[in-house]
User: Fold these one by one.
Assistant:
Number 1:
Amino acid sequence: MCGIVGAIAKRNVVPILIEGLKRLEYRGYDSAGVAVVDGKDNGKLQRVRSTGRVAELEKLSQAEHVSGELGIAHTRWATHGVPSEKNAHPHISGGISVVHNGIIENHDELRARLRSQGYVFLSDTDTEVIAHLVHSFYKGGATLFDAVRRTTAELIGAYAIAVVSENDRTHLVVARHGAPLLLGLGEGENFAASDASALIQVTQKIVYLEDGDCAEVKLDRVTIVNAKGDVVERPVHISQLSASAVELGNYTHYMQKEIFEQPMAVANTLEMVTSAQSVSPQLFGAEAGRIFSDIDSVLILACGTSYNAGMVARYWLEGVAGIPCSVEIASEYRYRESVPHPRTLVITVSQSGETADTLAALQYAKSLGLLYSLSICNVPESALVRASDLRFLTRAGPEIGVASTKAFTTQLAALILLTMVLAKLRGRLTTERETELLHQMRHLPTALANVLHVEPQIKMWAEKFATRHHALFLGRGIHWPIAMEGALKLKEISYIHAEAYAAGELKHGPLALVDKHMPVVAIAPKDALLEKLKSNLQEVRARGGELHVLADQDTKLTDAEGLHVIRMPDHAGILSPILHTIPLQLLAYHAALERGNYVDKPRNLAKSVTVE
Ligand code: M6R
């Protein structure tokens, strides 16, 4: 989704801005631009914009000799107005230049007012009203900082903005409300960005801005003013991101790298229990013991893949810990009238921790009086983590591919740990069972590494899938959400229409779709529902459907006409959903490759969905 980088230095900042944009490319975008206050030409604004990749923007800025010591840059993911050069940021109004992430909801009325004052709009974006509004205050005599503050006071919606003026080369001004923004502190130079990864190459010292903050960023200092207008200090964090963690290394795609990193990502996530004899609430924060003892139900809020992780967890939390659990799509929950129950633990699950719908759903839950919150998240210091009472950081490392892979399996690892902790507190986990589960968890990275060996067989399936228009994914019980995740992965990157069903539902409708052109994937672990599932698979075979089954060793399912079986190397008991995810990720990856798709950046999608 949209990305912001800003810089002030005693050197040309264009390479810093471009490098920052490159590091934000993974978030998804459809145009990019940069504006700097020209170092040589009496401080005039120079701007280049492109609907191509950032590399193209880089070539354009070199060709046009764009350089300066103060500047802002942006990657845009279109919301208001098609992807085009005129809609790309930065937008300019009389020497003021602005980049913006988020959506301004009252842009129509502001546009009408600004038009009546003589402003001419050159783009279809909501952002251009910000540029004109800042300019209107600035030309009336306000400082740039005050002009930005007066502007933000009029904006309704979510925004992170960075603003420069060609008449004031000493600073840039940034502000945020509802969209992430941070400052990077350097030696005699300072920066701003929407994501710490954009600044890896220049600084590790990061200051996260709070909602309502507005900051003046100068060469030698930053000054932050909060929503009330008071000057405030915000803590300086040392970013743990390393440049190598976001490099491709020997892999061809980030998704491929991230699929193969899963044994390590899960091992890192479970590191704190690998040598432990038991689990304890402290894994989730200092207050977790008290909070977990006071709750009597759980509500999981999430989107996309993270929602699927929540759906798996419901089976664990109710089946193992015996605690009532509901799982809701965040974008639905936030607008639904629900019956609040104060002793519910609200769990948000998110890779990025910045997903706008999940954040809003958490705020909504709090506004209803739900007392306790826990965030399971891959990004320390993200908005969700900061907004929650308790946290568990999955340690997957940066996930760059838009299709979520290692974030999902590490979320599941975190959720099984939570299940164990709650089960123990509720007297439902014997010491023997705890020891057995900890043993299974220690074996999980090895089991994951073993499953990755099914890749050549999956590749053969993928060649066939790539020629089809539709696919059906079936699972039962806890593997139904894994079928959902398999279908989401396939449609997201291969653009093959895929649906997931609880296999028992097949005969209630979707069976009508099945014929010889419809490949059907079934997840068939050796569990209590296996015989039921086998009956469902017979229903598919009887209609000529081509079955592709991921089966455990002792399921007695073997290859036959119209039945293709891949044997899973390990059976992992209740951890089985984690293992069955891997072949489905590989299937989507190879089907997308076969179709010649750009797997890391599927069309129309963004990595971090920071708008509603
Ligand atoms: O960062 P989050 O986990 O909150 O993101 C939620 C979804 O946008 C995300 O999982 C999305 O569905 C993935 N692209 C799926 O692969």
Note: The chain has 19 helices and 25 strands.
Number 2:
Amino acid sequence: MAAYKIAIVGAGPAGYFAAQALQNLTDENRVFEIDMIERLPTPWGLVRSGVAPDHPKIKTVSKVFEKIASDEKFRLFANVEIGSDISVAQLQEKYDAVIIATGTPLGKSLGIPGENLRGSLSAAVFVPWYNAHPDFVGVDIPLDADTAIVIGAGNVAMDVARMLALEPSELDPTDTADHAIDSFKKSNIRKVYMSARRGPEHAAFTSPELRELPKLEHTNILIQKADIEEAIVRAGDAPEKDVKSNLDAMLLIAENPKSEHERTMQFLFQHTPKEILGTDRVEGVVYSTPNGDVTIKCGLVITAIGYQADAIDGIPYNNGKVVNTDGRVKENLYVVGWAKRGPSGVIGTNKSDSTAVMELLVEDLKSPKNAGDISELLTHQVVVSQEQWQKINEAEVAAGEAKGKPRVKSVIRDELLKQAGL
Ligand code: NAP
């Protein structure tokens, strides 16, 4: 029986699905001892700090993650940063294979003037802020103006626009960070534009997300009917199923405009951002449109136009992704998830993707190295194990129960470590 030691760097969906694939590839000839290493004191990646808090059903996949982690050959090493604390090369020496599953945490930028003004930020900052990510607690999110613009037409833009446009008390029964709920309750924002540079037939968001918008109890949703009618003509007689489904959902919204609420979320199509205006802070966005330039005043601009990977020493990057061939990077180094293929697909997409890479990894394996593991590289780090993470998890859920929420997340690293008993 060959026992292979595998290190997975990054405890998000792609990392867990890689671990699950390896568990499923275990047979009478080989077993896998899996060490999952995570920079934060808490695992679950985007399921914890990306998925919108008003979408709790999507987060139930965390039960699958915990089942994977309950295997006796699985260990969690959270609160350990690869690249600074320990190098990728050190892991490669010790483990039979190292899998990078670190995602794409950086927001892409527009590259237009004014992008660095106060009040202009990326969804890569805004989303972890409202999701209680410890690194984003103190970020400056000015919510004092009456209008916000979200640039982009994907599901992240949709999440961001919805979070800004909903009545904040709708977040009370969610695990949104307390600091974010407090800020939203004090926010002056009443009008939220979501702008797409192309027409509705090219929108990247999906119809389930569109269909739930009219269910917002305190928000008008506005889509110009003419925009959709023109898009239906452009899409032709046999549009793709997803496009048709999106156009149908948008037409339904356009035909049933609501106007009784104080808050409004409005879709703009064929609006290409040219410049963000302002001197000390954001004052508006200039768009080029088929009818010429248009300026929309606002005090907050959030770009949700895609993500890219963050560099880790020892890993080759290009175009915001880890350079790879079908997940193989070099020697015994592999990559899965958004770091591999870019930021596309839903959480479940990572299951098939990670499984395919693990099949290649297993093909590449020789005899086990028996060269030790990460525990020999840890010197000063305070490590959160699976058992200790479970203590955090239980404390968060218990704190949530008292408030009618699924959990209350601590945003201070030291507090998280204290909950872990460290
Ligand atoms: P996305 O789906 O790729 O959408 C990116 C959007 O940004 C597109 O509308 C794109 O427009 C626009 N864009 C790109 N560059 C731009 C520029 N320079 N100026 C203006 N607009 C620009 O990415 P995402 O929204 O970040 O989502 C990532 C993945 O996560 C997607 O697969 C998404 O479905 C998934 N996700 C799913 C959920 C859910 O299931 N509820 C929630 C969140 C995210 P063009 O098409 O014109 O390039």
Note: The chain has a mean pLDDT of 97.
